[in-house]
Design a protein that fits this description.
Elements (H helix, E strand, L loop, with lengths): L1 H37 L11 H20 L29 H10 L3 H6 L4 E2 L10 E2 L27 H5 L4 H25 L11 E2 L23 H16 L10 E2 L18
Parallel strand pairs: 3-4
Antiparallel strand pairs: 1-2
Length: about 280
């Protein structure tokens, strides 16, 4: 009887210790939470209005954490350095100006050799202006394709039906949504790859893509017939326009989500071996 009572008493004491530890831990969490809400690291400790200051206080904490551990690894890295002189003071780095003004200023600063080099598939960097290299070889006919590019491990994207299948839907509204999803994922892919390669643009991860394919499927012997929306000119024009609008139009009135590039205007749609003359 005495032994049973002793065991029961020991269990009660053990349970009390566990409860006490849990209460201490809970109290510590409450203290931390209170500090997060009411204490701004940039200011002093004092009572503040919860609703009015919560957002600013949390942002101050985020800034403090960033200063200690740095930016997240996936933070976008610009391919053009507009923060450093001398280009920081040039009009092409001024976002308040229109695209035409900025492009005109930039081209005026390039040498003839630099302009020629920028017309290649892999445009080299221009260090004196803070401009990184850019790879134009990106395809997004029905979602993003590696097409020779090298994505780092773990990246996956939505793959939609081949264009000939998209055309078979006869549904421009649906194809526009496909373009919107593709553009959103393309922006994410571009930012991730820039961050991974320290601002260097890589193949199959640009903000442009050589899509849609607006060729007519005129000859089944053409080896890339699946890239087109079909053989009917009207259907192709409607689906092609819908996909282009989906890729380019976003919430920002100033910038394209992705720059579409319709292809091919020459030497396609015939038998592969004869396409230069068909």
């Amino acid at each position: 009887m005495a032994r049973g009572c002793g065991r029961l008493l020991w269990r009660c004491r053990l349970q009390r210790r566990r409860i006490k530890r849990a209460m201490v831990a809970l109290s510590a969490l409450l203290v931390v939470f209170t500090l997060l809400i009411y204490w701004n690291p940039a200011g002093s400790v004092k009572a503040r209005n919860f609703g009015k200051n919560l957002d600013s206080n949390l942002e101050s904490w985020r800034n403090l954490i960033r200063s200690l551990v740095g930016e997240p690894r996936f933070a976008p890295v610009p391919s053009v350095d507009c923060q450093s002189p001398p280009q920081s003071g040039y009009p092409f780095c001024d976002p308040s100006l229109g695209p035409e003004q900025r492009a005109t200023d930039l081209i005026a600063r390039l040498t003839l050799e630099e302009i020629i080099n920028q017309t290649t598939s892999i445009a080299p960097d221009i260090p004196r202006l803070g401009i990184g290299p850019y790879n134009w070889r990106s395809n997004c006919l029905h979602g993003w394709s590696k097409s020779g590019g090298h994505w780092y491990s773990g990246l996956t994207w939505t793959v939609f039906a081949a264009p000939v299948g998209l055309g078979a839907t006869f549904n421009p509204a649906l194809i526009k949504k496909v373009g919107q999803v593709t553009a959103d994922e393309g922006r994410a892919l571009h930012n991730l790859m820039l961050a991974h390669f320290d601002g260097n643009s890589t193949e199959a991860a640009g903000l442009n893509c050589f899509s849609p394919n607006v060729n007519l499927l005129r000859d089944p012997r053409w080896g890339r017939a699946q890239e087109t929306f079909g053989e009917d000119p009207y259907l192709l024009s409607q689906i092609g326009a819908a996909y282009t609008h989906g890729l380019q139009e976003g919430d920002d009135p100033k910038y394209l989500k992705v720059a579409a590039c319709a292809k091919h205007f020459a030497v396609h749609s015939g038998p592969e071996e004869l396409r230069m003359e068909f």
